[in-house]
Amino acid sequence: MKSLLALNPFSVFHRKKYYQVLTNIFVHYDFTHLIFNLLTLYFFSSQLETTIGSFAFAVLFLTAGVVSSIPSLIKYRNNPLYFSLGASGAISGVVFSFIFLYPMSRIYFFFIPFGIPAPIFALLYLIYCIYASKRETTINHEAHFWGAVWGLVFTILIHPESVSIFLWWMGKIF
Question: Domains of the chain: which residue ranges?
């Protein structure tokens, strides 16, 4: 099932399996991958959905998943052995939309006893994604990066007033 639904850019381009650009969001490598994505989605989605509305939230999630797949589609279009799966790119879009709308928030991790200011987390996350994408791993860091960027772009498109609010908070934080 994974090989049918996961994103295989070669299959998208050469076998016309266009559906994989969307279906890859809904399949995961293993149970741990699924649980981590679901927990992250759970912690950020409720407040964000209340703010932007259910329809916009669904559009954000799905489009972030698709946009985050574009670099893989381009980079691996001639590699029949490359596969990508999971909702991490879509969830990165949700997280970054949340951070942009709620820059005064703190991000908490199970293993860190204090919260990190959301904008600092966002900056560190993007830097890490860029750094990690230069190494060959089984994690699609480019999808995480572009999903996050799309989350910001989408939020600005639907709530342009959020830019001035975000900048005001940045002045207070820094």
Answer: 30-76+88-173
